[in-house]
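Posted in: Structural Biology > Protein-Ligand Complexes

Title: Requesting predicted complex, S-adenosylmethionine in pocket

I'd be grateful if someone could produce the 3D structure tokens for the following input. Sequence and ligand are given below.
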Amino acid sequence: MSDHTYEKTADIIFGRWKSQILYTGVRLGVFDSITSGVKSTSDIVNELGLDDKLAYRLLRALSSMGFLKEEPDSSGFSITSQGELLRKDHPQTLRGVILLEEGPEHYAIWKHLPAMIKDGKQNSLEREFGCKLFEYRDRNAEYAEVFNQAMSSYSSIQTNWVLEALDKYDFSNIRHVCDIGGGTGHLLGNLLLKYPHMKGTVLELESVISKKGSLLAPKLGVSERCSYVIGDMFSSNSQLPSADAYIMKMILHDWNDEECVRILSNVYRSSPKHARLFIAEHLVPGPDKPHFSKLFDIHMMCVASGKERTVDEYSSLLQQSDWEYVQTLHPHQQSGLIEVIEARKS
Ligand SMILES: C[S@@+](CC[C@H](N)C(=O)[O-])C[C@H]1O[C@@H](n2cnc3c(N)ncnc32)[C@H](O)[C@@H]1O
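-- Reply #1 --
Done. Output follows.
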């Protein structure tokens, strides 16, 4: 066994310690407290109302992981570029992501993973909290705030990947786009900014779009072309908005195959003959190829009824709901983890 093998394995074993240390730094406001240059430990501690001895040890651990830089005499700390990514005001902030994924709810549900895999019931959140994800979110205001912020935080990078993947696409005949489960409108708002001839509709649950202050279209200056409509993508009784194109980012991975076919069939029923559908998701590559989607898939196993899928699996879902797979569009960046599948009505 080489030292490298040992280190790689140990690093994974202790991975959760690292993410919990980082979560605690973010939760306590460390990264928003250190603005520019060196801040003394006592100023950080006093401003955030922390215990000085325990807080120093946290700051030192955050420095050891590369998020802060400790002064040689331990008198203060400055923020590194890695640490900047955890600040509220960073354009690609990961703050919301860590607050959700390492927060108490998501931390708690992972403990059910071995039992789920043994008995084949994918219901970790129900085991822990007695209900499903969106029901839990809509009953818990504090969790809802963290969840919705995390979706915007994920979107701050995912939107770029989706726009890049669609960069060469000819949108000249697409005048109205509907974002199904579009959250507060991060993706749609940015799509409308890039394509001024378009208007858009976000279809969402009432709990998400009733908080007017959190909607992003007004902040992006596209509110005149962007409407928010309350709707249920599962309800076959209600008509979804009629649009030239539909987009769904990180929607289908929340749901099992049967639920996905219900959503896709509803969109099919509500859409005009010429409609296009864009599905933005992590795509699982072939066997033995390491990919983030294979880890996110286990997260989906814990948090919802869904899964991450291969292109062929998405094609099959499309076929079962009368859509026809057209192509997969890739972001230019090698690091882009989201791809976009285009479908048309068959
Ligand atoms: C994983 S989030 C993705 C949000 C957004 N598309 C993004 O990428 O940031 C899933 C979204 O689906 C919405 N949603 C869940 N059930 C829904 C339903 N029955 N009808 C419409 N939207 C729903 C949730 O409120 C949530 O905002």
